[in-house]
Design goal:
Glycerol uptake facilitator protein
Length: 284
């Protein structure tokens, strides 16, 4: 019975990730898109939850960011447990590609479809949150927090955004990797929470989350009544534009790919899945 309770070992996790990667790459187009829209919405909800909980937090800078990370974890918990297709987590599909179980075309197809679906899900959630008016909570405190978060992302340099993207998706893919050690829903949730809390608290950049944060900031900036209520002048939040969104997403997306494929998928493929030949026989 012990083997039914203990977590899967890393070598077994690698095999599970390989099988999942093959299945993801072979999903029909309609399934990929629908599940990707869901994932974008889930990440947007996690981001909205984190924005709310960090508004007016009087516990100090570090603890407030940890609280934001804990609540942001809702997004990936929904993705993994409810079932959805998230671009950043799907960077682990590279393990199946490296093992020659799927083609480069299949990987590209999966990533493009999922990225597009995630975009519509995240932006759609930003629109719904804007129309809901919940940003006015806390005497417009939630709106000011959301504006500050979005503007800070658009003000990053290309290099900062790229490196923060690398570090972010190393942690996101590690969270997904750890989920493959789990035998229960509780195990998966516990595996997700700490890597995700870490990346949010440390200010790393997630391209799908930014598809929610920045569009919401643009919508809030365009609300003349809100800008007047918070005393923001005409030049306030100048970086919050569609161009600013693009300039953030390009380096963050590239960084996310590097962090997920090389630092997680590539390392674990090399350790557990690469053909070892004579070397593997000798070490056995």
């Amino acid at each position: 019975m012990k083997h039914l309770i203990d977590a899967y070992a890393p070598a077994e996790m690698a095999q599970r990730v390989l099988r999942v990667g093959v299945a993801k790459a072979r999903l029909p187009m309609a399934d990929s898109l629908v599940l990707a829209v869901l994932a974008g919405a889930f990440i947007g909800l996690g981001a909205a939850f984190a924005t709310l909980t960090t508004t007016g937090a009087g516990m100090g800078f570090g603890p407030a960011r940890v609280l934001g990370g804990l609540t942001f974890s809702l997004g990936l918990i929904l993705v993994v447990i409810a079932g959805a297709e998230l671009f950043t987590g799907n960077n682990l599909v590279a393990m199946a590609w490296a093992s020659r179980e799927i083609t480069t075309r299949q990987v590209a197809r999966n990533w493009i479809l999922v990225y597009i679906g995630n975009f519509f899900g995240s932006v759609g959630t930003a629109l719904l949150l804007y129309w809901s008016g919940t940003w006015a909570l806390g005497d417009n405190g939630v709106a000011m927090n959301a504006l500050g978060i979005a503007a800070a992302k658009c003000d990053l340099s290309w290099g900062e955004a790229f490196v923060r993207g690398v570090l972010c998706n190393a942690l996101v893919c590690l969270a997904v990797w750890l989920c493959n050690s789990a035998r229960s829903t509780t195990d998966k949730i516990l595996a997700i929470v700490w890597p995700i809390t870490g990346f949010v608290a440390m200010g790393f950049e997630h391209c799908i989350a930014n598809m929610y944060f920045i569009p919401l900031g643009i919508l809030l900036k365009s609300d003349a009544g809100l800008m007047e209520a918070i005393g923001a002048g005409n030049g306030a939040y100048g970086s919050l534009t569609v161009g600013g969104l693009t300039e953030n997403l390009i380096p963050v997306t590239l960084g996310n790919i590097v962090g997920g494929t090389l630092l997680v998928a590539g390392v674990y493929w090399f350790a557990y899945l690469r053909p070892k030949g004579t070397e593997g026989s000798d070490s056995a």
